[in-house]
Design a protein that fits this description.
82 residues; mainly alpha; 65% helix; globular
Length: 82
């Protein structure tokens, strides 16, 4: 529950609206959203490098359609780095 709220708070802090899901990006959106939730959970820090690799894989294979996910991904990565 805390992980869910953490993602929602992060999106609100940066005034980011979740991308609309359509048939083409539904599963990618779900995967990215859950990977970001894990990335925002400090109790799972041992898995963060693997999560970043997973996000990178999804973005690489979706190609230009992944642009819609970047506003959701970037703040979490910046928070993780900083």
């Amino acid at each position: 529950m805390g992980v869910e709220n953490n993602l929602e708070n992060l999106l609100k802090r940066y005034n980011i609206k979740k991308p609309d899901t359509n048939k083409e990006n539904k599963f990618s959106m779900i995967a990215v959203e859950h990977l970001i939730k894990i990335l925002n959970d400090q109790t799972l820090i041992d898995h963060h490098n693997t999560i970043l690799k997973g996000i990178k894989y999804i973005v690489k294979h979706i190609g230009k359609d992944s642009i819609q996910f970047l506003p959701m991904i970037i703040p979490s990565i910046l928070t993780w780095i900083g």
